[in-house]
Write a structure and sequence with these properties.
The protein is of the alpha+beta class. The chain folds into two domains: 2-170, no CATH class; 183-371, Rossmann fold (3-Layer(aba) Sandwich), CATH 3.40.50. It is 26% helix and 29% strand. It has helices spanning 2-17, 38-47, 162-166, 170-179, 207-216, 281-285, 313-325, 332-345, 359-371; strands at 23-27, 30-35, 51-52, 74-79, 94-96, 102-105, 118-120, 126-128, 131-135, 141-146, 151-156, 183-186, 188-192, 195-200, 220-223, 226-230, 241-243, 248-251, 264-269, 274-279, 292-300, 309-310, 348-351. α7 packs antiparallel against α8. It is globular, with a radius of gyration of 21 Å. The N and C termini lie far apart (58 Å).
Length: 372
Amino acid sequence: MTEELHAWLDAHLPQAETLNDGVDFRLGARVLRVSGSAETVQQLTDLAPLDRIDRLDGLDGLDGPDSSHTHLPRVGLHYLDDASIADLPDTGHLRRGPYGAITAWANDDGGYGAEATSDVKRDGTSEASPWLICLEDDLSAMLAFHLESRQALAFSRTALAPRQVAEFARTLMHWAAIADGNVLVHAAAVAREGRGLLICGVGTSGKTTLVRQCIAEGWAFLADNVVEYSPGAATNASATQLWSTYATLKLRPDALPVSPPETSISLWDDEAEKDIHFLVGATRAQFAAEPVTHMATLVLQPGGPAHPEPLAAGAGLLAIAPNTVAQFPFYEREVLERVSALTRSAPLFTAGRMPLDAMTRLLENMLEDVTA
């Protein structure tokens, strides 16, 4: 039963909650404290896919009066050591869904997600569990998020692969975004003078090429694969926001040349067959540390028009939702509702392959029309 795994996690949670050490990073619209794995922290620090928060700023980096991150919600991620996981309960009877999500046990008739957060006791009664769990079939890695304490426990029997560092703790970020009233969208995003443009589309639709051209011409960069969408700020409930996520770009070997060339550390990802660029220097400085106002959404579609044209909200939902929903263990309904709200919160446009030398001018014209 899942109660054995929950009990094991419950036993390790107090240790993680009482730790004062760790390094703080900004993970989308929140602060993430990573503890318990010097190797992982060093990888994140060296490659810098996330904004690191200087703990010497203000009062320990988060509570000082000048800190721009004081208002952000927080989550913790503690890596368990080999000794801690030596007595991990047998999980062979548990059913796993996408990303190793523990959805139910083998003799349960419920569909995917039906019993995702419930635990059936030996007397047949059930109660909601605060744990969300992803566990690889071969027990090589685990991530478990305790909703009430906002503390995650994890282990990995091998060093994190480049793609895992490039989109560090992405599953945790999905869960935390839902808990905070937001949603993580499979999309890219750029901004001009605080006006954000969300760029959606299936793989090979041209999202990264468009983002690179915008970066080359001085736009702020938020992401090329996942963006956090917030329905409104506390100071202005009508203004929706986009938050940057990972300061990385993933390029295929045959990617179009965009000037200036990438000035970043590059590592090859065997699984996606792409080069992952960890941005540095002037390009890294264009990574948006603060949220931007969501002004418009552009959906790139094969065979679409050469200039952005208006798109109906229903068509936008059909284009955006499938790739986004597939990334969320347990929260399909909530994701659909929030993506639907996203498509209604700002004007929608669609386009196909736009002329490379005219891309940013077309986007600027589109944003100006929206603003007007």
